């Protein structure tokens, strides 16, 4: 196995062909200062949503809708995406992206608020997929909520799980890096989950609830 995987990583991030809807959502993200998921992560989200035949999904950290469009494109025609963000401008931009993607308004439930306040109000064991891409200090609590929300065989997906290669470096001691490292290990050791770390984007941690 070659030690330097960076060209394979760049190749797989450049491979997905993103359409005008995605590019406009990326432009809005940039204008709002939102860091959207990478094209490679977007492609994985669409595949996971489709392969799992998810009917109910929760997204924590809507941003300007790049990841939401990717999820909606994988979810079936009757599936509903519940997406949460604390910033109303971000939610407004995301609604524009969902409409441009041709998604009927009743397929998305956009909730404005802090995830830590909103998640406890969602129903236990009612969701097939939970995607987390919000503030890192809140992550341990979001993971616990996600496990509660997921049905058996439901998928948990966490973006930025390798934090720009900082998680892999034991000398990386920034608070967010430490949180991500601890969460990655806690999920690996959690008997309720089976997990895998994908090097896609800035790291995508995927887990299935047993
Ligand atoms: C990295 S961006 C999400 C990008 C989006 N997933 C995408 O790829 O298009 C993180 C988002 O989390 C939101 N956020 C930050 N802290 C939050 C919190 N406590 N509760 C809910 N949303 C939060 C921010 O407003 C921001 O829109």
From TrEMBL:
- Keywords assigned by UniProt, alphabetized: Methyltransferase, S-adenosyl-L-methionine, Transferase
Checking Pfam families in the record gives: Methyltransf_3
Q: Which SUPFAM superfamilies match?
A: S-adenosyl-L-methionine-dependent methyltransferases
Q: Specify whether S-adenosyl-L-methionine is a keyword of the entry.
A: yes
Concerning InterPro entries, the annotation shows: Cation-dep_OMT (IPR050362), SAM-dependent_MTases_sf (IPR029063), SAM_O-MeTrfase (IPR002935)
Q: Which domain of life is it from?
A: Bacteria
Q: Know the name of this protein?
A: O-methyltransferase YrrM
């Amino acid at each position: 196995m070659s030690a330097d995987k960076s060209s394979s990583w760049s190749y797989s991030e450049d491979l997905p062909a993103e359409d005008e809807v995605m590019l406009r959502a990326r432009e809005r993200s940039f204008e709002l200062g939102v860091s959207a998921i990478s094209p490679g992560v977007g492609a994985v989200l669409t595949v996971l949503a489709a392969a799992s035949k998810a009917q109910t999904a929760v997204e924590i950290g809507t941003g300007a809708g790049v990841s939401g469009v990717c999820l909606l494109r994988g979810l079936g025609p009757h599936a509903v995406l519940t997406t949460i963000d604390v910033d109303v401008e971000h939610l407004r931009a995301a609604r524009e992206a969902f409409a441009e993607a041709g998604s009927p308004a009743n397929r998305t439930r956009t909730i404005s608020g802090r995830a830590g306040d909103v998640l406890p109000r969602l129903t236990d064991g009612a969701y097939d997929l939970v995607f987390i891409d919000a503030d890192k200090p809140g992550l341990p609590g979001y993971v616990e909520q996600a496990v509660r929300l997921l049905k058996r065989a439901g998928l948990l997906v966490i973006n930025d799980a390798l934090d720009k290669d900082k998680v892999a470096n034991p000398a990386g001691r920034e608070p967010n890096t430490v949180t991500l490292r601890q969460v990655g290990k806690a999920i690996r050791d959690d008997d309720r989950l089976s997990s895998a770390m994908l090097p896609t984007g800035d790291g995508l941690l995927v887990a299935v609830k047993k």
